[in-house]
Amino acid sequence: MTHIPYFIDGADRNGPWVITCDHATNLVPPHVNGGTLGLPDAEMERHIAIDIGALGVARALGVLLNAPVVSANFSRLVIDPNRGADDPTLIPQLYDGTIIPGNRILPDEERQRRIDTLYAPYHSAIAHTAAGREVCFLAMHSFTPQLVGRPPRPWEIGVLSAQDRRIADPLIQRLTADLTTPVGDNAPYAGFFPGDAMSQHAHIPGRPNVILELRQDLITQAEGQQEWAARLAPHLDAARLQANL
Questions:
Q1: DSSP characters for the chain?
Q2: pTM above threshold 0.90
Q3: Based on CB atoms within 10 Å of each CB, which residue in 90, 144, 161, 206 is the most buried?
Q4: pLDDT tens-digit series, residues 115-157
Q5: What is the percent of the chain with per-residue pLDDT over 90, rounded to a whole number?
Q6: pLDDT digits over 67-95, tens only?
Q7: Under CATH, what is the fold of the domain 6-242?
Q8: In the chain, where the domains are located
Q9: Using CA of residue 52, residue 39, residue 189, residue 108, what is the dihedral sign?
């Protein structure tokens, strides 16, 4: 059976948003090293392989915002769709202290095969979903509460953006008023990698956009995913309207 490299939920929804989830699953497709990267299951359940809880939040937001949701059906350790095709970390060999055996010695033809069979079809699905429409892009991610050897992260949520702050600024204002914990502004990560997913589908075409990072321990379970989606949806649409989008 041919592996399907992406899911689209609500393809016929016609609201003003398109939602993406780049790191939705920890799946290693069968055609990649026989379906394994040589890591134990415990490592594949960690944040290094999947944005824990992000897919559930993205799908719940899709319903609440009447938005299609495009999600990648392969682990970021196989190939990271949130990197440019020429990024040296596109196929990671080391992540948060863990060596990825299946990626240590990677022939050029295998790298290209992963691009052709996984990375490129996912990005084509996003482009097709947004084609011919005036939309705002929302990328849903999650982050680990603490990296190995690093201090705990104080944020529950981070709002990431590059130069286009039309949605990010009013959204941060609204979330700051709603939450008792600090809202990350381009934290815990910067909001831009050259050639990343948002660069390809929003920055270059000039579409309004924002990236959300939720702390994983808050959305591990379905209940937390639904609660955060219900909390975020009105803030997202209010920020969009405030930006006259």
A1: -PPP-EEEE-TT--SSEEEEETT------TTTGGG--S--HHHHTSTTT--TTHHHHHHHHHHHTT--EEEESS-TTT--TTS-TT-TTSS-SEETTEE-GGGSS--HHHHHHHIIIIIHHHHHHHHHHHTTS--EEEEEEEE-S--TTSPPP--SEEEE-SS--TTHHHHHHHHHHH-SSPEEES-SS-S--TT-HHIIIIITTT--EEEEEEEGGGSSSHHHHHHHHHHHHHHHHHHHHHTT-
A2: yes
A3: 161
A4: 999 999 999 999 999 999 999 999 999 999 887 777 888 899 9
A5: 89
A6: 999 999 999 999 999 999 999 999 999 99
A7: Aminopeptidase (3.40.630)
A8: 6-242
A9: negative
Q: What is the largest CA-CA distance in the chain?
A: 51
Render pLDDT for 164-188 as a digit per residue (tens, 0 to 9): 999 999 999 999 999 999 999 999 9
Q: Which residue shows structure tokens 């996003």?
A: 126
Indicate the pLDDT class of residue 227, thresholds 50, 70 and 90: very high
